[in-house]
Design brief:
heterodimer; A: about 325 residues; alpha/beta; 8-stranded mixed β-sheet; 5-stranded antiparallel β-sheet; 13 strands; about 20% strand; B: alpha/beta; 4-stranded antiparallel β-sheet
Chain lengths: ~325, ~325
Amino acid sequence: MSVLLRVRDLKTYFVTEHGKGTARAVDDVSFDLYPGETLGIVGESGCGKTVTSLSILRLVPEPPGHILPGSLIEFEGRNLLALSAPELRAVRGNQIAMIFQEPMTSLNPVFTVGDQIAEAAIIHQHLSRRAARVRAIEMLRLVGIPDPDERVDDYPHQLSGGMRQRVMIAMALICHPKVLIADEPTTALDVTIQAQILELLDRLQHELGMAVLLITHDLGVVAGHADRVVVMYAGRVVETATTEALFEHPTHPYTEGLLAAVPRIDAPRARLHAIPGQVPAATAWPPGCRFHPRCPYAWEKCVAQEPPLLETRNEAGHTARCWLVTEPERRAPKR
Amino acid sequence: MTAPGSLLVEVRDLVKHYPGERSWFGLGAPRAAVRAVDGVSFTIAPGRTLGLVGESGSGKTTVGRTMLRLQEPTSGKVLFEGNDVFGLDAARLRALRRKMQIVFQDPYSSLNPRMTVEETLREPLEIHRLNGAVSALLDEVGLDAAFAKRYPHELSGGQRQRVGIARALSVEPRFIVCDEPVSALDVSVQAQVLNLLADLQAKRRLTYLFIAHDLAVVRHIADDVAVMYLGKIVEHAPAAEIYAQPRHPYTTALLSAVPEPNPRASKQRIVLTGDMPSPAHPPPGCPFHPRCPHPKKSERCRTEPPPLRPITPGHLAACHYAEEPM
């Protein structure tokens, strides 16, 4: 199958204040998104997953941020980083749409939800106001909002958190995009509402046939909804695999540690595995493998030399940025 | 049920209503009161952890704060070591607060940004005229002594939460309300803090009320679990039992909604429809009935509020059909 969205060697850096240096938030990230699939990007705060998603649509504020020359974001054969502003606008919100974590701050409080949903259809599909309003009502119905003919005239503050996230989804999908970037779409929601929204996204993806880039910190969400996973740590991709392979044979010690740290509802009360230390600052990534200060297996080579993404023996396309792939016998933690 | 002498904390029919604001800039008719906590009772034995679980707006945080009298109750009683917390004068309340502490959710807003870690930890010691060493406290929560001179903005989220825990520990309490202490933290750091809380409990024989929205997190710390919905406890049981055999359909739905980190988990998800109603206008009958997926749901659920009653010994549930769980 042909690649829909190709990200190659993406570097997004930020110049920090007070002369603390350059934060290398996204540092040489590559991945492919295929039509119709869900690709999960997983990592903790500060790993670069949100900056990656913002870079795709060039939404990173410049300054202080900048995407370095040599980065490539190719959508249907065109480098988005080379497009002019009007060309980019024709893609944004039309062929590639995005939903964010916090629906209250991403919706405009002084416009009705109907106006906000209709806006993209007026701009991109040149619908009349009246036709766009009809489309907006259809979209509200599609995302499961009761009484859409009335809700279309509501303001964001009149809706609950879950309903606002549905409005965001309606807004993003009105132009039937080929790619939906969902950045922590359920993190701010309660667990029963999260289940509703994830189910809705699954259904819409199926009906509309779009590809989803699902950015999340929650391994449970990834396990249930992604086809493939990219694990990020310290601005780098550290592991990529199909979802099944990742959970069955986590190869990078960070992935392994993260999976062991998740409290499980199906496991009896026990001490949790904790990864010692914390994610380092983006202005001072450690030398060698960026995970080595927290890694239970690290040896001299890990400090001296950063591993490339190495193909594991599990299955084709399962890669990990870890020297253990070449020296698996070292996977016995030293105490 | 435990004998009364062996309880550390007892909450009896706790109610906290917030009066409704008047519409029209204070001139119109008052709106309906928000019934944040609507008759909650439970007990905690020394050295145990009660997990209080619920979604936003369920009233779980208000229970914790009212118990410590950080908010005045509307009615009800809280007994701590047999003392009526709501009947104490200011001086005796202050003395009691030494024994009852709280750790907040957001380590960013619950520390004073202008105070160093040392100043933050020294303040409660001075108020209660205690001779504690800041360095020993830092050591106990796993922070290097060098952190004493730092300000909150120089710390990571996990480190700030450790300072918040050290501050609660400084006055040597017996009981700590942990109000969502790990929900703002990343997974790897969350595990560190949960392990720390468990270690401290074992070492200092602490009693916890652990408030959380995450049932998986609660599973790893709580001995007993109480589930709240719209200001009421709808189920209360030993942890092992509630996870194995939930009796209330809301608990069943909550458990099934937790995303499991296992792509092969082929569980039948129960997706509730709708949102939690406003606590200012709770539905009549069972507060959960508009969203309830129980196949037996009947007219009785719409009219008659189910009491919280024992289903098996020690396992309470507020559902007319708790004997036939989903």
